[in-house]
Amino acid sequence: MKCPPLQQGLSLIEVMISMAIGSVVILGVLSLFTANTETYNALQAQTRLQEGANFGLNVIARDLQRAGYRGCYSRGDVYVTAATVPAAFDIRFGLSVHNGGGNDDGNAAWTTSSTGASPAVSAVGGTDIITLRFAENDEAYLSTALVTGQENIQLAVVSGASTNIEVNDLALISDCEKATLFKVTSVAVNGVAMTLGHAVSAANGNIVDGLAETGTFGTDAAVASIVSKTYFIKQGASGIAGKGGYSLFQFDGAASAELVEGVEDLQILLGIDTDSDGVPNQYLAPSASVNTGQIVAILLEITANSINDAGSTEADGLLRRTFRQTIKIRNAG
Hints:
By secondary structure, this protein is an alpha+beta fold. The protein has 1 helix and 16 strands.
């Protein structure tokens, strides 16, 4: 009786079938991995652009709510004794907006400040620029009343207030009836006491020695430093070509700092109150014809992108999204 031959291996057909099945399984796994990777990258890009845009909007909104703040006297004209006032720190105008309109010259066409100029920054053409000015919350009250307004200012410094005021800075002295913008020509600190000089000098000081146009300042008056913040869009430090390399910048009157990468556009509309009820009746693009005293709200619009190619249907492959926020102006007028 013969025994059947033993199986020596797989036949060619069996090998081919096994390879085909294995290839299908591998392709399925690779497809799933690729799909998951693309989904993860898309979610990461969306999260990044949303976080960046929200951060940018919140930073600008915080300063917008302080724009025009001048202590107890946040409405009305400001008397100026300083011989020269850099546009960045001209607190007579709490808000200035430049309508980009394809013009990247940040020193032209400023529309909401009668000074006719504002900080010169090189912004991306077509994007808007906004400058905000307000008194810092480092107010220090006078320890001695000014009799003539010509004597040095004696301040009582509490918890470090006003210790950041330096020689050649602009400062604001105000009470609830008046405010004066002056040039600090000397600073002396002795414990909790600070003395500020405001000497007359046509070149680098003040044009008059009296700090009050009418009346004098008593111990209810306070002195504060001036804060200036200009927000604009320009090419960031990443060096990435195209709009993925754009960033939101902040200029503080001395230097610019990159705040948020991947912000490619900033647009601003002005909420105008025409019937004095505190509520905007219309939103207008910045223009020279806008009555700044009627601006009660600002509509900010930021467009952010994913910085790197995220496989979107856009020509550059970037994901992009526009975010809007409306902020009420607390110190209108």
